[in-house]
């Protein structure tokens, strides 16, 4: 099947605030094959920049727009998608944003191929089983330890078996205050739930600031400390891992190549590798990282903070790994992220979720619900139209 | 001094080809302070994408456009520029292209500050001396060993003491053919010149393909083998380094954070770290990497393939390091890259170049010569103008 068109849909809330909530906008990708087959994907984040990386004029042979490696190419088999990833990597070597743009296109190609072959993507990846995952609720630290405690209790009441707290003032406040929040979170959760703490890169590459927080995390039995440092600060990760004991380090959401994520395992000594398929270059590279995690006794976890389309995409790479249970789940996404899909992945009474068994990603985009959120982009270069947002209405095919 | 404006100028050749020549377009940045001071910088590469990362609507609190961290901020001292780098890193954490956009702005801020304080940037970085460097001529492998030999001889006749060959078919051809080219290059250079070989990431992460080429490189006394692998494939670098003997590995041009470049030293075992200040986040991060190189007995080398403004910017970080002699020099840039500056850095009869001693970067942009190359960009979102190329004519200041 030849790739006939790749279209981008930029959707956002009417107002995008400064909160650390990645569900406020979305860049959806629709690919259409020459037989009329359709697949959808999502890029994370900065829609205008990612659109530009698709349509920009080339700078030279290895700084070409992503479009140059995709349009008119053929996809009949999973290996064709891996081949296109190689091609984009080569032709867009010097275009930094290309990885994020390509991620959404790659995901859409898997969806397209799965629908065409009538198989869920995880089967195309070689998995035999679709194991249930334990989603964690991701929340901001409260303003006071008491409010953190109440949030933890509330998440448990909703059925979550794992809860993540982070951002807010965590890491910048007094060490004692941080410890109080962590203890309060554990108290609110009770003994049986997994407690996860997210530092959001707050300590840069300063290992000492992280080390000070470890005793409180150990005392509370935290499962992981996430992103203590900058995405590339592997040495700091490794130094902290030496003293973090049973508190495993987690990271990887910033990885935009499979090697970058594997480096965090090989050189950063993380115990949990968190991969966002909408950033790392799609589902194929995510699967490569999952295999590397298995080989190194590291737990693979999806990173997802947007829609259930993105959630399904990020789950595909590890649904076949029974022992890799924990799963990020966008708990309270903004309406744009919720409304954009017809189906949603729901938590069952056992506090578990499963990736769809339907063909492709098993999540249909709601083209009607999406309309009010769409933003129109127009780019002109030297007065010539280089890009214009497409119509969300599916293309009608003359002669079919 | 408050940063009043940041303007981008996208210049390109009338036709941009697929050759691996990064001098075919340029994205210049002009910053203007509230006292009318002006500084210039350059981003590398993909002008439209980098402009978009400056003006894009925000996606959330840590996916803001680069503009959000710059406009209206104050720069009076080098530490202010380092502070802004931290701010961009935080506010644009999830915007991949931000590093490339910020690079050009950061360079322009150093130029602005140097001109204001009447000091060359290298003095502001703490260097006492501006040591001469030995530029190498960078050329494509010939179609035949004989033509490679002739190119080498030609570069020597022009006075170059070091020559780099790469791309073309190198690395994909037969191992014997590759060896013939390397031997021919050495023959053309004679015994005294440095021979450098650039593989342009051709072997991905396949160490065996690189290992096969090492004997020929050793026999020819090559100083370095550059970019054998993907930018993030540190493990492959380290494995190859174990068997490359006196042929040092070189890499780093793809680094878009200081940690990424330092990782290539710490985990990739390179002996030459090549930093493009127009990609890594500017001159400040380049200097941080240079200090790390010195601590680890690794040689710092600039990566520059565009204009002499970019060349001056990339030299600043290591002009004070006497033992780090070798320097990339754009030998035959396209006319846009040459014409855009009034001054050029010329090689003397000893085959050496020096960074300017004049304030700032010491390279003035030729606003008149630049005009014919300028491309007009217009971006609209929901019908509202989000970006429009500025006029190259310097802003006139009412009341001054």
UniProtKB/TrEMBL annotation, chains A, B:
A single Gene Ontology molecular function, please?
A: lyase activity
Residues covered by the Mandelate racemase/muconate lactonizing enzyme C-terminal domain: 145-250
Entries under Gene3D superfamilies matching the protein: Enolase-like C-terminal domain, Enolase-like, N-terminal domain
Q: Which SUPFAM superfamilies match?
A: Enolase C-terminal domain-like, Enolase N-terminal domain-like
Instruction: Recite the UniProt keywords alphabetically.
Output: Lyase
**Stored PANTHER family:** D-GALACTONATE DEHYDRATASE (PTHR48080:SF2), D-GALACTONATE DEHYDRATASE-RELATED (PTHR48080)
Designated name of the protein:
Unannotated protein
What does the record give as the organism's lineage?
A: unclassified sequences, metagenomes, ecological metagenomes
């Amino acid at each position: 099947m030849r790739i006939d068109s790749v279209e981008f849909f930029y959707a956002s809330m009417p107002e995008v605030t400064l909160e650390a909530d990645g569900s406020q906008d979305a860049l959806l990708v629709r690919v259409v094959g020459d037989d009329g087959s359709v697949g959808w994907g999502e890029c994370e984040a900065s829609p205008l920049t990612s659109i530009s990386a698709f349509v920009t004029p080339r700078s030279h042979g290895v700084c070409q727009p992503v479009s140059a490696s995709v349009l008119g190419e053929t996809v009949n088999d999973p290996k064709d998608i891996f081949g296109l990833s190689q091609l984009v990597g080569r032709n867009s070597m010097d275009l930094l944003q290309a990885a994020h743009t390509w991620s959404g296109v790659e995901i859409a190609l898997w969806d397209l191929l799965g629908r065409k072959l009538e198989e869920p993507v995880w089967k195309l990846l070689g998995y035999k089983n679709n194991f249930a995952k334990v989603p964690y609720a991701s929340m901001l630290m409260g303003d006071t330890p008491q409010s953190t405690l109440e949030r933890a209790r509330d998440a448990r009441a909703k059925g979550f078996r794992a809860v993540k707290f982070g951002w807010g003032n965590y890491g910048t406040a007094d060490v004692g205050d941080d410890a109080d929040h962590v203890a309060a979170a554990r108290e609110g959760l009770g003994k049986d739930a997994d407690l996860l703490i997210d530092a959001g890169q707050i300590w840069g590459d300063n290992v000492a600031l992280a080390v000070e927080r470890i005793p409180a995390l150990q005392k509370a039995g935290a499962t992981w400390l996430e992103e203590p440092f900058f995405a590339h600060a592997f040495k700091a990760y490794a130094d902290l891992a030496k003293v973090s004991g049973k508190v495993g380090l987690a990271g990887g959401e910033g990885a935009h190549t499979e090697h970058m994520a594997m480096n965090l395992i090989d050189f950063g000594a993380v115990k949990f590798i968190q991969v966002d398929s909408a950033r790392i270059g799609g589902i194929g590279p995510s699967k490569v990282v999952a295999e590397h995690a298995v080989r190194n006794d590291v737990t693979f976890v999806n990173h997802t903070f947007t829609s259930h389309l993105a959630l399904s995409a990020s789950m595909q790479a590890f649904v076949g790994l029974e022992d890799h249970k924990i799963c990020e789940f966008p708990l309270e996404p903004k309406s744009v992220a919720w409304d954009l899909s017809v189906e949603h992945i729901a938590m069952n009474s056992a506090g578990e979720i499963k990736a769809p068994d339907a063909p492709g990603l098993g999540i249909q985009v709601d083209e009607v619900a999406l309309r009010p959120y769409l933003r129109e982009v127009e780019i002109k270069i030297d007065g010539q139209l280089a890009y214009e947002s497409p119509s969300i209405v599916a293309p009608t095919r003359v002669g079919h």
